[in-house]
Amino acid sequence: MKKITQMLGFVVVVFILIKGCQRTMEVRSWPETSAVISSHAVEEYTETESKKNSDGTVKHSSDTEYRLWVSYQFHIDGVQYSGRFDKDDLDDERQVEQQQRIYPIGKKITVRYDPQNPADSEYKGY
């Protein structure tokens, strides 16, 4: 039973990796356009980790981390669309501020968009 469960887990991981690669290849074929960063949002969350000690006890630790959501806008055929990307695993507010300086509101970036559905877009610069 254990081998079946391990094999099933392996198949799921492989499936997820294949889907991710397919998405990456698809996005690479999309046209590029210019977009402008329009806003930031900061999300605070707790990352919890559990480690088993040599004596068999489990030690839990948690850290506060931050995610910066960066929103952007672009136009295709006179229609405005928006998208967003995140910078996560930021350890402190100083790192958040640093990322906000790298991606200031008003900065022009290049995004790729699905020509069949321009609302589906991705920022390729990170």
Give the SSE order as H and E letters: HEEEHEE
Distance between the termini: 42 Å
Percent range of helical residues: 25-40%
Strand arrangement, largest sheet? 3-2-1-4-5
Total of DSSP H or I helical runs spanning 4+ residues: 2
Q: Gyration radius, to the nearest Å?
A: 20 Å
Biggest β-sheet strands, sense, barrel: 5 strands, antiparallel
Whole-number count of domains: 2
Class by SSE composition: alpha+beta
Strand content: over 45%
**What would you call the shape?**
flat
Mean pLDDT: 87
Q: Count all strands and give the number.
A: 5
Low-confidence stretches: none
Any overview of this molecule?
This protein has helices at residues 2-28, 93-102; strands at residues 32-52, 58-76, 79-90, 108-114, 117-123. By secondary structure, it is an alpha+beta fold. A five-stranded antiparallel sheet has the order 3-2-1-4-5, with helices on one face. Strand 1 and strand 2 form a beta hairpin. It is flat, with a radius of gyration of 20 Å. The mean pLDDT is 87.
